[in-house]
Amino acid sequence: MTAGREGDAMEQRADQYDDNQRSYRAYWDGRGYEHDAEVAALRRLLAGRHFGHAADIGGGYGRLVPVLREFADRVTLLDSSRRQLQDAEEYLAGLAGVTMRLTTVAGLGLRSGSVDLVTMVRVMHHLPDPAPALAEIARVLRPGGTAVVETANLAHAANRLRYAARRRRVPREPVDIRSAANRERDSIPFVNHHPATVAAQLEAAGLRVQQRLSVSNLRSTRLKRVVSRGALARAEVALQRPLARVTFGPSIFFLVRKAA
C-alpha cells in the first residue's frame, strides 16, 4: 500500500499550521543537524526491535515516517493540519505501508490497544497540559507497547545557568516562551517542559520510562557554520546517552513502555 488517507468519515479538523505562509517542510531547510540528531535518537531507542503497527502523532509532512518504516510493518501518520498531510502525500509518495489520518492528539481515532509503537516528536511544546495526549497514547497502545515521546527541555544546561544567575530554580511547570505579541495574537502555544515533570506525567498515564536521551546537544548556528554536518552528527551520537544524565540538551527523548 502506498501513502494514502483513511478515516474519511471522521470529523475534519485543522490547526494554525494551515494558516502559516511558510510550510513546515521548508522550516527544515538548513536544519540538517537537528534532523540527523532526532533520527539518531529514534534509531538508538528502537534498535533491535520490530513492530507491527506504528503511529506517528503530530508527524507533520512525514519527516520521520521513513525511519519508522525501518522498524514497523506499517505506519499511521496522524496530524491535525490538512496542509501537513497534503505535503506528506508528496513527501511519502511511493513509500509502502503508510496511511494518514486528520485528527488531534487528544482524540486519535484509533482503536484501543491497536498500536505497537507510538512516536510523538516536536508536539509536546504545543501542549501546555499534555495529560490528555499522554492518556490517549496509553489508550491506543497495546499492553506492553512502546512509545517515544520528545519534549522541549526547560531544564537544559544553558537555561539552568540563566536561572541560577537570577538565584531562581528552574520551574517545574511549563513555561510559555512565545513573545508577548504572539501571545496577544493567540498564536499556537509554544512551551518548554521540565523533564522531571514529564517523567511523572508519563508514569501517571501508565507509561513507564525505560530510557532517556539528550538530543540536539550541539544546536548552535555558529557551530554549524564551522563544523561539517557529518562531524556534528557523529559527535551528537556519542553525546546523547551520557548527557541525558544531566538533561543537557534542548530536547529530551523518552522511551516508555505501557504496562503489560
Task: Outline the structure in words.
- By secondary structure, the protein is α/β, with parallel strands linked by helices.
- It has a single domain, classed as Rossmann fold (3-Layer(aba) Sandwich), CATH 3.40.50.150.
- The protein contains ten helices and ten strands.
- The protein has helices at 24-27, 32-46, 65-69, 82-91, 131-140, 157-165, 180-184, 195-204, 221-226, 229-244; strands at 4-5, 51-57, 72-79, 98-102, 115-120, 141-152, 175-176, 191-192, 207-215, 251-258.
- The strands form two sheets. An eight-stranded mixed beta sheet has the order 1-4-3-2-5-6-10-9, with helices on both faces. It has a two-stranded antiparallel sheet with strand order 7-8.
- The longest helix has 16 residues, at 229-244.
Helix content: 25-40%
Q: Could you give the order of the helices and strands?
A: EHHEHEHEEHEHEHEHEHHE
Strand order of the largest sheet: 1-4-3-2-5-6-10-9
Task: Give the rounded overall mean pLDDT.
Answer: 92
Q: Tell me the total number of β-strands.
A: 10
Largest sheet: 8 strands, mixed
Q: Which overall shape is indicated by the principal axes computed on the Cα atoms?
A: globular
CATH class bucket: Alpha Beta
- Note the beta-strand portion: 15-25%
CATH-assigned homologous superfamily: Vaccinia Virus protein VP39
Termini separation comes to 31 Å
Tally of structural domains: 1
